[in-house]
Amino acid sequence: MNHLLIFVKNPELGKVKTRLATSIGEVEALEVYRKLLNHTKKITRELECQKTVYYSQFIDDNDNWEEAIYNKDIQIGNDLGEKISGAFKNSFQKGSSKVVIIGSDCSELTKEIIEEAFVMLDGNVVVIGPAKDGGYYLLGMKKYYASLFENKKWSTNSVLSSTVADLENLKVDYHILQELSDIDNVEDLKVMVEQSKI
Questions:
Q1: Does the pTM exceed 0.85?
Q2: Are strands 98-102 and 126-130 parallel, antiparallel or unpaired?
Q3: CATH architecture assigned to 2-194
Q4: Mind spelling out the 3-state secondary structure of 90-155?
Q5: Strands 136-141 and 98-102
Q6: What are residue 78's DSSP bridge partners?
Q7: Region of residue 129 (left: phi > 0; alpha: psi -120 to 50; beta: else)
Q8: Which of 24, 34, 98, 120 could connect to 175 by a Cys-Cys bridge, CB 3.0–4.6 Å?
């Protein structure tokens, strides 16, 4: 069973896109995040796999993630690494054979790239979608490695390189997808608007 995990933040004023908000204000930053959520739903709803939306604060039964298509759960852990690790572990324990996680910050992400990630797990144990800021927009595994989420400085430009170093040390076969940009600051937003990505 293929399982897509979608990590989202509950869209609340002042709690999303905080770096971007310092430039454009909290109201505009919330609007940008709502557009990113809509983009993420658009590219995932037709995928032929199990899908679970993991919320940051609370499960919202009245939002636009249709319960007929998406399961809903909540992120548990002290930092992003613990939250991602727990979601992967939970999915594998429930019988998933391939698990891919994405966030909701990447307007360049497409349905085809996610499908490619699942396909590449046929010949690899791990697949990574590198982000231009030094993190990753996607991570996929067909075997659970808790160490990939330990000893990381989350939300910094060292996350991708230290994850790849872990994979090299573990001697795990992995595949790198194309590099994409997250929207973290006003420069990222300008590029995305110019490209009509959101």
A1: yes
A2: unpaired
A3: Alpha-Beta Complex (3.90)
A4: HHHHCCCCEEEEECCCCCCCCHHHHHHHHHHCCCCCEEEEEECCCCEEEEEECCCCHHHHCCCCCC
A5: antiparallel
A6: none
A7: beta
A8: 120
CB-based contacts of 68, cutoff 8 Å, min separation 6 = none
Q: How far apart are CA 175 and CA 90, in angstroms?
A: 23
More confident residue, 142 or 197: 142
Cα–Cα dist 118/140, whole Å: 7
Q: What does the alpha-carbon distance between residue 159 and residue 137 come to, in Å, rounded to a whole number?
A: 11
- Burial (0-12, 13-18, 19+ Cβ within 10 Å), 122: exposed
Q: What are the tens digits of pLDDT across the range 97-130?
A: 999 999 999 999 999 999 999 999 999 999 999 9
- Please list the helix, strand and coil fractions of the chain in percent, rounded to the nearest 5, in that order: 40, 20, 45
Domain boundaries, the chain: 2-194
Q: What type of residue sits at position 186?
A: V
Q: Do 24 and 71 contact (CB within 8 A), yes or no?
A: no
Give the separation between CA 108 and CA 31, rounded to whole angstroms: 18
